[in-house]
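Appendix B. Extra example for self-study. Work through it before the problem class; the solution is given directly after the inputs so you can check yourself.
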Amino acid sequence: MSPFATLLWRDIKLAARSGGSAALALSFFALVATLVPLGVGADLRLLARVAGGILWVAAILAALLSLDRLFQGDFEDGSLDLIALSPLPLELTSLAKIAAHWLSTGLPLTLLSPLLALLFNLAPGPTLILFVSLLVGTPAVSAVGAIGASLTLSLKRGGLILPLIILPLLSPAVIFGAGAVSLGLDGLPAANALGLLAAFAFAAVLLSPFAAAASVRLNLGG
Amino acid sequence: MISSLTAEKLACVRGDKNLFEGLSFRVKAGQALAVEGANGAGKTSLLRLVAGFLAPAAGRLVLKTAERESDDAEERGKQIGWLGHQDGLKPQLTVFEQLNFFAHLYGQRADRAALEQVGLARQADLPCRYLSAGQRRRLALARLLASRRPLWLMDEPFAALDSAGQALVGQLMARHCGEGGIIIAATHDPLGLANESLKL
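Solution. Structure tokens for the complete assembly:
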């Protein structure tokens, strides 16, 4: 197994055995999606209209729950020193951690979304668009989150600052993701919005490992 | 194989504190350097500087091999086996999984013999959360062996170990030097085999 695959597999294993992060994120996502219809009431058209935005924001907030530990666990117990001295460049280390976070959090959230869309009376067409938008867009959440997680690495209670750093950066994902679902509801083609979302996610996944690696380097020296 | 590591007039500044300056030393293949000093004198900072985590405020570190000389921190990092004062172990992974992960990460094959050498063969399938502080230190030593790196940087290598464990560390260090490796160890305890010592 390559060093990249080794780190990816270890992080997925740790996420599964910790028993917290993915289950917590899914529970949070499900709870928000259950509470909103209770608060909004029985107006089915209104529920369907707000579904895209609510589910996208809920997915981002759910993913945030485990993002602060992306590098912090390894930093606190000294593993990050050992990983930094391995042949794997820190940029690829960051990419492996982003991929592991998405596989253990973003993907399960995406898979759960069609079920939660039922609570919002979302028709099959817009539900499919919601699913595709989360599938395409949640890697950006993990990637942008990695930048925030690396910046707050050595800060006490950095998890509290993390949302303030990354939520504004994720506004394009919410705009294009929720916008695609709205277009679907209106019977309009959502391909352009999904394309823009995919471009944003691609850029985030491509560039964030470099930013995160630079920040990790600074923290290792600090 | 490394021929020597030379520090030329190194200086280290942390925050507004000047930890040391004008520090020079040379460690050749087969030698160990004991770095001594009071708490906060800069022993760990010196190790982190050699590892490339910190950049020196002045001076340079030169790694010499049979083929070439280099002061590139990244290149030096690829030769380093690290034993920090934190063990870097995950409570959720078993002893062997932990060793296997780092061995693969360093491009090596995991070897249960490394666990036997440090007396942890029977605990191979035990999750790390059940290990004592001394056993965790022994596993960190097994990981150091599995890395197969020629330049060992060790921060308080005897910490948390009983007398048998300390003797084991001594043996492993002596063997590493015997095989042409280099050791730089920050310690309050005598190494026994240090060819040189450095007082900070």
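Self-check: Chain A has one domain: 3-221. If your reasoning did not lead you there, revisit section 3.
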